[in-house]
TrEMBL record:
Its EC number is 2.7.1.107. This is Diacylglycerol kinase. Residues 15-65, 78-126, 144-195 form the Phorbol-ester/DAG-type domain. It holds the Pfam family C1_1. It comes from Photinus pyralis. Residues 556-694 form the DAGKc domain.
């Protein structure tokens, strides 16, 4: 293969080292995606990154080689890597080969895929999701596309030429990570650079409205991505026999040799001997030897030293002048420098190991050089400046020369600082002192790793963080309902006085959570790591560093969507959704409820005047979010944001009534879910307060459920669970009043219905891992119902144990074993106990008329008939104020949270708390995913969706989808 790249090569600006090659199997051009035709399929391939191109496309290549891609980034952003996984039908963004057969990882935020052995060469160009700059006017903000090459969604069309631009044969085509626009490599240079976030713009939280304090805390710790951070080594590098990555021709053979039998290995070695070739391990510095991470090259045994040196540089994606480097023999006693005329045969061999060399920088022969200084967040037009340095140049001199180049003549050096930024496996920053010497830093880095030396940058920054001094930490998992002084003392004891916070508040007493604020970012980072490793009362503390939102930077007409995902709900599909939403939207607007609940997200959005919420979970999760909204609404600019639902639970009755479906199955495109939220209409949902007044008699700790009020009471026979705490409100109870208050959104059950719910709840508490699918959960309900049919009847003659008053009138109860009080016309996974409309004394119900419906069931068989749609429940009453007296111990449940209640008075009355919900547009057709792009062409109007304004939003038929 003859190398054709040179100074006059038009593609050399993109860093490729092209060589001509004849391909002996079907091969596709990475520029246009077409096959290389002909019996002798000739084309060009990059000897570093394996980029294949037609002869006709050779002069129009725009995709940069991975050897220089890192140097093209102005502000590097680290990726949030996933766990290793076998990805199908994807290509590596570094070596461009298929991922199917090897373990690979991907970024949780953007569509960047790499082999685990290629991770060292991944380009730190993840989306920059927080770019707020103080003093910059919204009208001056121009957001540009963030292009990612290859791995396009199927059936992607080019936004410019309208032709198909995806392929399943190679890494080809481009996609904007913000708006989803797709295009050909040759077309994307002609697309206007400004990006408007596509069809998701109405709910997109723009990056220029978010600021993150300038700390070294990684992004995954801020957004709650749970990734194990281990310095894992590839099995091939641990054995010290197989490269952790290989850009040479024999990479696949090397991997096969590690797992092949002795006969195959001998055969491969014989073939190499016949070709008179040698496989050499190349270490790029002392660090790579310590970590036992190397690359391999395959050379002819008679190769000249310069040829071996160039191959070693290419293997580590190093593009600097080869004259500045040399090779040494790793296994020689004194690390002898390789010399012509026969460098390869003179290499020392260890038994069972390949020869190995060190790639070294000629630091003794280079007392001066050049370094690049990047302006970082400073608002200048230049991407970087090049400053000549020598062994006597200090960081202060470097800052002074950079300020002159960038035109900051009026500023003094004392207002700025210089940081060393490394792009090796992420982005790490170190602030330099003024007397450190940049050229000595470069040379020391070259001894440890030539690759790191290549990727190291100097960044100029203002000394004072432009985003302000306040850094907010959310702290959870402390005991609930303590005083502010107690919380301060606990945190001070854990942190030490030297790391004490500047301010505390707000405090969410019921949840044992709070926000603490620091004015010193370094102190805040120390506190973050201390608290993250701390325990209190045998519980690990939960700590999150919170981003800041600037409301003035959100465009008019945009209602940012705050997304909560309960990864434990129902079928446990939340992990897929949370990953999809973080890629489609800004990851800072997506919160995992397993990481602090709704409170961190609501605190971050507290200053936004108009936003929406999407809750991904079951009815219990929705109640939890609404309850937290009740607690924080008075301190927020938007006290009652409209809430939409992605039903992940088992019952999902509220979601059914609001037309969000019986349950998310994973089959619908998450993009379509977000489009439905944009189109949804706002409606009001009645909410009700259920107050339990126990009879005046000695407390029986086995029967009373604990309220989460300020007065602490004994637990019920059921241990108080987190779900119950989430649903309870703070009661205004006095020392004489043991009343407990609940907020009801869906229904309140007494008797057989609650008894079944209690059995299911106890079974799930005993074996939570078994309840991981809707089908299993419903089958458990059926089994428990069958047992109730043949076993003793706990709720027999319930009508004799309950007295019911509706709107001040005593209601005579029929012979029933259960009573259900309905706010919505969906119960038990979509059944309608009230039944179809008929002529009687009751009015047509809905969930905003201020009325409740009371129905009765005669037993388990009747419950089954209601759920099957064969019968309706017995209509008993309808009213806005209900009073019930329980004469004995009876199972009860409020919105699916059950317990056994001792004799008491129960009052159900209209709550002063408000809830605004989002209802999916009726008659909305399921979209076929034929156009995966999120972009709407300029001037195109979306067709209005059909709706039937005449139908009641609470029509019983709405539960059918």
């Amino acid at each position: 293969m003859a190398s054709v790249a040179g100074p006059t090569d038009p593609t050399a600006a993109h860093g490729h080292s092209f060589g001509k090659k004849t391909f002996h199997k079907p091969t596709y051009c990475h520029h246009c995606g077409d096959m290389l035709w002909g019996l002798i399929q000739q084309g060009f391939i990059c000897e570093v990154c394996n980029f294949v191109v037609h002869d006709r496309c050779f002069k129009t290549v725009v995709s940069p080689c991975s050897s220089i891609a890192a140097s093209l980034i102005k502000n590097p952003v680290a990726h949030c890597w996933s766990e290793p996984f076998h990805h199908k039908r994807k290509f590596c963004n570094v070596c461009r080969k298929r991922l199917d057969d090897n373990v690979s990882i991907h970024c949780e935020i953007c569509d960047y895929f790499v082999h685990t052995e290629c991770q060292d060469f991944a380009v730190a160009d993840c989306r920059e999701n927080a770019t707020y700059l103080p003093g910059k006017n919204l009208a001056c903000v121009r957001h540009e596309h963030h292009w990612r090459e290859g791995n396009l969604p199927s059936n992607s069309k080019c936004a410019l030429c309208k032709k198909t631009c995806w392929t399943s044969e190679c890494l080809s085509g481009y996609r904007c990570e913000w708006c989803g626009m797709t295009c050909h490599a040759s077309c994307h240079m002609n697309i206007p650079p400004e990006c408007t976030f596509g069809i998701l713009e109405p709910i997109y939280l723009p990056p220029h409205a978010i600021s993150i304090p300038r700390t070294e805390v990684p992004m995954e710790a801020i957004i709650g991505v749970q990734v194990r951070r281990k310095e894992t080594l590839s099995p091939r590098s641990i054995s010290e026999e197989f490269s952790s990555g290989d850009t040479g021709r024999y990479k696949d053979e090397e991997f096969a040799q590690a797992h092949a039998g002795g006969r195959d290995r001998d055969k491969q070695n014989k073939e190499r001997d016949d070709r008179d070739e040698e496989v050499i391990k190349v270490y790029d510095g002392n660090n790579s030897l310590r970590r036992r991470i190397f690359r391999t090259i395959v050379v002819q045994r008679q190769s000249q030293l310069r040829h071996v040196l160039i191959l070693a540089l290419r293997a580590h994606h190093i593009t600097k002048d080869p004259n500045n480097f040399y090779l040494t023999d790793l296994y020689s006693p004194d690390e002898t420098q390789l010399q012509d005329p026969t460098p390869v045969p003179n290499l020392h061999h260890k038994e069972g190991k390949r020869p190995a060399v060190f790639l070294r920088f000629r630091d003794r022969d280079n007392d001066k050089g050049e370094v690049r200084v990047f302006p970082g967040k400073l608002q200048v037009s230049q991407a970087f400046c090049t400053v000549p340095v020598d062994s006597s140049t200090t960081v202060a001199d470097l800052i002074r020369e950079s300020l002159k180049f960038f035109g900051f003549h009026e500023y003094g050096c004392e207002d700025f600082r210089c940081s060393e930024i490394l792009l090796d496996r992420g982005v790490t920053e170190r602030v330099l002192s003024w007397n450190e010497r940049p050229w000595e830093i470069m040379k020391q880095l070259g001894r440890d790793s030539i690759r790191q030396m290549e990727l190291m940058r100097f960044y100029l920054q203002l000394k004072q963080d432009p985003h302000g001094p306040n850094v907010a930490l959310f702290v959870g998992n402390l005991p609930p309902n303590l005083s502010e002084r107690n919380y301060e003392n606990i945190l001070t004891e854990l942190l030490g006085k030297e790391n004490k916070f500047s301010n505390i508040g707000p405090i969410y007493y019921e949840y044992g959570s709070m926000v603490i604020t620091y004015e010193d970012s370094e102190k805040a980072v120390r506190a973050f790591y201390i608290l993250r490793e701390s325990r209190y009362e045998d519980k690990h503390l939960l700590v999150m560093l919170l981003p800041n939102l600037e409301p003035s930077m959100i465009p008019h007409g945009v209602q940012p969507l705050l997304i909560f995902v309960n990864v434990k709900s129902g079928g446990c599909q939340g992990l897929e959704l949370i990953s999809s939403f973080r890629k489609l939207l800004n990851p800072y607007q997506v919160f995992d409820l397993d990481n602090g609940g709704p409170l961190p997200g609501l605190y971050v959005f507290r200053n936004i005047q108009n936003y929406r919420i999407l809750v991904c979970g079951g009815d219990g999760t929705i109640g939890w979010v609404l309850q937290c909204l009740d607690n924080v609404g008075q301190d927020s600019q938007c006290s009652s944001p409209a809430c939409a639902i992605v039903p992940l639970g088992t019952g999902n009755d509220l979601a059914r009534v609001l037309r969000w479906g019986p349950g998310y199955t994973g089959g619908e495109d998450p993009l379509n879910l977000l489009r439905d939220v944009i189109d949804a209409e706002e409606i009001r949902l009645d909410r009700w307060t259920v107050v339990f007044h126990p009879e005046d008699k000695p407390d029986d700790g086995n029967k009373q459920v604990n309220s989460s009020g300020k007065k602490r009471q004994k637990l019920s026979k059921l241990k108080l669970t987190n779900e119950q705490i989430k649903k309870q409100v703070v009661g205004a109870s006095t020392s004489e009043d043991n009343s407990q208050i609940f907020v009801m959104n869906n229904y309140f059950g007494i008797g057989i219905d609650a008894d079944l719910c209690l059995d299911f709840h106890n079974a799930r508490e005993e074996n939570p891992n078994k309840f991981n699918s809707r089908l299993h959960n419903k089958s458990v309900y059926v089994k428990m119902g069958l047992r109730k049919m043949v076993g003793p009847k706990m709720c027999k003659d319930l009508h004799k144990e309950v007295r019911l008053e509706v709107d001040g009138k005593l209601v005579e109860l029929p012979q029933v074993e259960g009573i259900i009080i309905l706010n919505i016309l969906s119960w038990g996974s979509g059944a309608n106990p009230w039944g179809p409309e008929k002529e009687d004394q009751f009015s047509k119900p809905n969930h905003w008329d201020g009325m409740l419906e009371v129905v009765g069931v005669t037993g388990v068989v009747h419950l089954g008939q209601i759920q099957s749609g064969l019968r309706s429940a017995m209509r008993i009453a309808q009213g806005g104020h209900i009073k019930i007296h329980l004469h004995s111990d009876i199972p009860v449940q409020v919105d699916g949270e059950p317990w056994v209640q001792s004799p008491c008075d129960v009052v159900v009355l209209k709550s002063a708390l408000k809830a605004t919900m989002l209802k999916k547009m009726k008659g909305k057709m399921k979209r076929r995913n034929t156009e995966p792009t999120m972009l709407v062409s300029p001037g195109t109007q979306l067709a209005p969706l059909p709706t039937n304004e005449g139908d009641s939003p609470t029509d019983p038929n709405n539960v059918t989808f």
